[in-house]
Amino acid sequence: MNPAWPARLHVVTGKGGAGKTTVAAALALALAAGGQRVLLVEVEGRQGIAPLFGVDPLPYEERPVAVVPGGGEVRALAVDAEEALLEYLAMFYKLGAAGRALGKIGAIDFATTIAPGLRDVLLTGKVKEATTRAVGGRHVYQAVVLDAPPTGRIGRFLNVTAETARLAKVGPIKTQSDGVSALLRSPMTAVHVVTLLEEMPVQETADALAELTRLGIPTGRIVVNAAHPPLLTGGRPTATAIRKGLAAAGLASDPATVSALRAEADAHRARATAEAGLRAELAGLGQPMIELPLLPDGVDRASLDLLAAMLAEPPAAGPG
């Protein structure tokens, strides 16, 4: 295990639009450093991982998507509920061809629709299998990173024991869900929450951490994504200072331009003040926290490597 990220299963959640898939991909690269093999898993059917690495859409099959210096490797997998159920039927009920026949007539889709808890058990069950899989006494993957559902659904998604209790009291489904629940509540797991320095994502972060704590599921880092760099220092710039700066740069320094720049400076300072308050709220949640910069030119492999290098740094301790 990476000492900066002391878990084997890293669940990455966050409010939609906060960049959790990008963070999950960068974290997988960070964990693969030093010759480690890491599996990056998505479960929402969005195919968000493949474009980040410039590869074809992921099948229900573990595929290499990146190598890192030192011989490390990231593989990726898109878990599909129907394929997971077919695998489950073949494994526990020996229904290979018969299970696929059920898929063709829509029975599997019907089953996961009327029992949505079953879908989450299947998805998390596949993640658990990959996390614990071993060959010759050694884990196949030194770490697994799960690009999980957003914060609004993360508690229900991970609380598979409660969901399965509505479906089965005994049998393979109950046994599998109990195994998943034990993994998710063990020190092998950490749930990291990705947020932006905006009011709603910060509130959802606080709510998600409180829910996960209530459920007994270990939490990890708060990742503040797309943080804006500070552009101004000191007090409010005067009109004279702005005119001098424009003139020194060979730009127009007419009153309209100076006034517009002062208004932009005021807006930036107001935003910086608001972000400072939100940052303090996050710090008060008591979790280790890291900030990742805004990527104005979008995400490519070079920027993923940059984020990975930052994520590899030891976390700052939360207060308390």
UniProtKB/TrEMBL annotation:
Record-annotated ArsA/GET3 Anion-transporting ATPase-like domain positions: 10-165
Domain of life (superkingdom): Bacteria
Pfam family for this entry, one: ArsA_ATPase
Name of the protein this chain belongs to: ArsA-related P-loop ATPase
